[in-house]
Structure formats: structure tokens, C-alpha cells
Amino acid sequence: MQLVADRGESEMEISIYLDKYIDARYKFFKWRYELDIIHKTFIAFGFACLTGLSAQVKFYLSWTPVPLSGQTFVVLLSAILLGRWWGGISQIMYVAIGAIGIPWFTGWNGGISVIAGPTGGYIIGFIFAAFFLGYFVDRFIRSRSFFSMLALMIFANFVLIYGLGLLQLYTWLFILQSNSINFWDLLKMGAMPFIVGDLIKLVATAAITKGITPKRAYNGEVDSDKWRSWRIP
Questions:
Q1: 17: Cα separation from own chain's centroid
Q2: pTM, two decimal places
Q3: Over the stretch 121-135, which tens digit does the pLDDT of each residue have?
Q4: What is the CB-side half-sphere exposure of residue 48 using CA atoms within 13 A?
Q5: Cβ atoms of 134 and 88 closer than 8 Å
């Protein structure tokens, strides 16, 4: 009997802690949504700095000028934690400040030449990816499930970021390097080496999103009265 009682108390304590956690994540997202523009600007700048720091976690491969880096993870988190406008704004800050010369692009580089270079399209893609994901996080409770978010992140990463990145990489090779390559070689240079690493980052970020985002409305989400009928976990 004592064992049953102890187990019941443990389950009750776990339930209490879980309720506190669920309430805390709701209060955090509601708080960041209701912040004034000055505080949101400072937080967005903080994520721009984090993006710059994560850009220094890099590995170069011998057959491509595009390095492996940790930026994507921070870009995705900025969208989740800052929401539909400010995640994208944080990446605009990152791009704009780097373009004027602050050396926080990959390899502690800065200047407009980086944006115009072979990796510039990927960097610009960060902005579109952050706006895209932030919009869904703030507007749809359904998007905060693991599989929904993973699907959105796959689109943001492999269509928005890779799409712009490959387009500029091809243009850079064709115009500045006088090197016209076919689509397959372009993928081998600018996409295929990074797919496995990016998928790992996407799965991890989608899992984090499921855990930290509230499953109830904090700003009048459009599906606040019907999201529970959606079956994807």
C-alpha cells in the first residue's frame, strides 16, 4: 500500500511540474508577443549576434566554396522564439550589419562582397526562412506540432534557403568564374554535402519547437477553436 501511495505522490508531483512548465511556456510566448517595439528590437539584435557567432562554427569541403556552418539552427530558432515579424527582422539585421562591414559572416568576414559572393544567396535566404516560419508559429497552433513544424522547416531550408543559395552560386560561377556547370554538379557543390547535417538540425529544432511552444492561443491564432481536431501530433 505504501508503494502505491508513494507512486501516486510521485505522479502528482510530476503532474504539478508539468502544469507549471506548460503555463510558463504560454506566459513566455504571450510576454514576447506583447513586448513593445524597443524591447523586441533589442531581442532581435541579440539573435542577429547569435547568428553571427554560429556562423563561425564552420567546416570547409575541398570541392565547394560553401562551408558547413551552424547558422541554420539559430535562424530557425529565431523564427520560433521571436515570431512572424521579428525573427525575420533579426536576420535582416544580421545581413545588413554584416554587409556594411561588421565581420560576423562565416570566417569573421564582412562587407557587401560576401553578400555578392558564392554564399550570399544562402544568407539572404535566412531572412525569407525566418519570416516564413515565424508567420506559421504565431498564426497557427497546428504548426507547433513536431511533424507540422518539420515539414515547414524542410520547405524553409531546402526551398527558400537552398533555392536562393543555389541560384546565386550558379550566377557567381557563371559570371565571375566563367564556369557554367550543369544542375547536377551545382547540387553536388551547393546542396548535397549539407543535406544530412541540415536534416539533423531540422529534426532537433522541430523537436525543440514542439516542446517549448504553447498549444493554446496567445495572440488570437486563426485556428484557436479547431486545432485539436487535427490529427498530426
A1: 28
A2: 0.86
A3: 999 999 999 999 999
A4: 22
A5: yes
